[in-house]
């Protein structure tokens, strides 16, 4: 059963839903529509495909706690294999290496069951602090 992607407003805006999230990885899906197409009618914009892959890999790397993201993207690479033409985009991710600070993941992205892209991502763990204005990431200032 699908559920919202915790408190990630951008993912929610696109309609990304979590299908499965466990120690083996994450599966997320997105129902496509014309607002997500590029200038070629019927082709899902590559940025949408990449966003779905990044969301699935990030959730696999460090699942949110109490709806708060626990990692940030350090590096992300995607190879588009075929245009994403269809109604349902699905990203299935898994952790390849879990280090103390960095986590390497990959994802396979399909559209209506056809493989359209593969992705590789590196994520850094973060410990968000709760402030009066909401959740903030640690300062990056060097002292």
TrEMBL record:
<protein>
    <recommendedName>
        <fullName>Thioesterase domain-containing protein</fullName>
    </recommendedName>
</protein>
<dbReference type="InterPro" id="IPR003736">
    <property type="entry name" value="PAAI_dom"/>
</dbReference>
<dbReference type="InterPro" id="IPR029069">
    <property type="entry name" value="HotDog_dom_sf"/>
</dbReference>
<dbReference type="InterPro" id="IPR039298">
    <property type="entry name" value="ACOT13"/>
</dbReference>
<keyword id="KW-0378">Hydrolase</keyword>
<feature type="domain" description="Thioesterase">
    <location>
        <begin position="42"/>
        <end position="114"/>
    </location>
</feature>
<comment type="similarity">
    <text>Belongs to the thioesterase PaaI family.</text>
</comment>
<dbReference type="GO" id="GO:0047617">
    <property type="term" value="F:fatty acyl-CoA hydrolase activity"/>
</dbReference>
<dbReference type="InterPro" id="IPR006683">
    <property type="entry name" value="Thioestr_dom"/>
</dbReference>
<dbReference type="Pfam" id="PF03061">
    <property type="entry name" value="4HBT"/>
</dbReference>
């Amino acid at each position: 059963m699908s559920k919202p992607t915790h408190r990630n407003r951008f993912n929610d805006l696109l309609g990304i839903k979590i299908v499965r999230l466990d120690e083996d990885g994450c599966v997320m899906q997105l129902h496509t529509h014309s607002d997500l197409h590029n200038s070629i009618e019927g082709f899902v914009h590559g940025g949408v495909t990449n966003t779905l892959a990044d969301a699935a890999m990030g959730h696999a790397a460090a699942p949110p706690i109490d709806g708060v993201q626990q990692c940030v993207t350090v590096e992300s690479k995607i190879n588009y294999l075929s245009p994403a033409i269809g109604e349902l985009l699905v990203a299935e991710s898994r952790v390849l290496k879990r280090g103390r600070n960095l986590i390497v993941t990959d994802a396979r992205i399909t559209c209506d069951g056809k493989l359209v892209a593969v992705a590789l991502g590196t994520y850094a763990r973060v410990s968000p602090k709760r402030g009066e204005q909401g959740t903030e990431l640690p300062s990056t200032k060097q002292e």
